[in-house]
Amino acid sequence: MITNKKAEIVGRINLFSIHRNPCLTGELGYRIGEPYIRKGIATKSVAALLEKVKKENKLTRINAKTTSHNIGSQRTLQKNGFFLHSVEKDAAQLNGQKYELYYYCWSNDSTII
């Protein structure tokens, strides 16, 4: 859970689907409550999670995905060193509108990417 200084829950961040094939890999997920978006919370939370990963040196690759219309999430990932790995056309649909899925990748081992 992501909390603010008042100990209120403002969002969540997690790593899931952690496996070794061929390197230790996990998927990143995060969500910030609407009243708290555009305040840098996601960017800071992802940065904190990556710092923990670097210190523990457990994961070597983290994948994340977002939709083409979610510019804030794309910027959060890019600011934290993720790079755009691939794009899947018309992969998501919301309210009858199709969106591309953007797949991002980060690694604490430069030989993996």
What report would you give on this structure?
InterPro entries: Acyl_CoA_acyltransferase (IPR016181), GNAT_dom (IPR000182), N-acetyltransferase (IPR051531). Residues 1-106 form the N-acetyltransferase domain. This is Ribosomal-protein-L7/L12-serine acetyltransferase. The protein is of the alpha+beta class and 113 residues long. The protein has a single domain, classed as Aminopeptidase. It is built from two helices and six strands. The chain has helices spanning 41-56, 71-79; strands spanning 2-3, 9-20, 24-32, 61-67, 83-94, 97-107. It has a six-stranded mixed sheet, with helices on one face. The longest helix is centred in the middle third of the chain and has 16 residues, at 41-56. It is globular. The chain starts with a strand and ends in a 6-residue tail after the last strand. The model has no long low-confidence stretch (mean pLDDT 92).
Task: Note the topology.
Layout: E1 2-3, E2 9-20, E3 24-32, H1 41-56, E4 61-67, H2 71-79, E5 83-94, E6 97-107
